[in-house]
Amino acid sequence: MNSSRLPAIPLLGSEEAFQLRPLPHPLAVQSSLLTSVAYDRDRAIVPVQSYQELLRAASHGAYFNRHIRSLFRYVLLPPV
């Protein structure tokens, strides 16, 4: 179900800043919910520990839903 996959990346700064400078080094993940994730220390609003736990999680989508989606701002990016 590709149409249900959310290329969600936590928004690390204002939307205007995000549009001017994309997040560095997005990492593709095996997930039915997420296509990639990225982290930018300069604009971080998600703790680096949460990002690291997301990368280590057995289910990236489940971790995102439980620990990021309702707590932090994020954006949905169109497929590249």
What does this 3D model show about the protein?
There is one protein chain. The chain has 80 residues and is α+β, with helices and mostly antiparallel strands. It has one domain. 29% of the residues lie in helices and 12% in strands. A hairpin with a 7-residue loop joins strand 2 and strand 3. Helix 2 runs antiparallel to helix 3.
Strand content: 5-15%
Tell me the distance between the termini: 17 Å
Q: Roughly what percent helix?
A: 25-40%
Order of helices and strands: EHEEHHE
Radius of gyration in whole Å, from Cα? 12 Å
The total tally of domains equals 1
Largest sheet: 2 strands, antiparallel
Strand order of the largest sheet: 1-4
What's the tally of helices? 3
Name a few traits of the molecule.
two-stranded antiparallel sheet; alpha+beta; 80 residues; globular; 3 helices; 4 strands
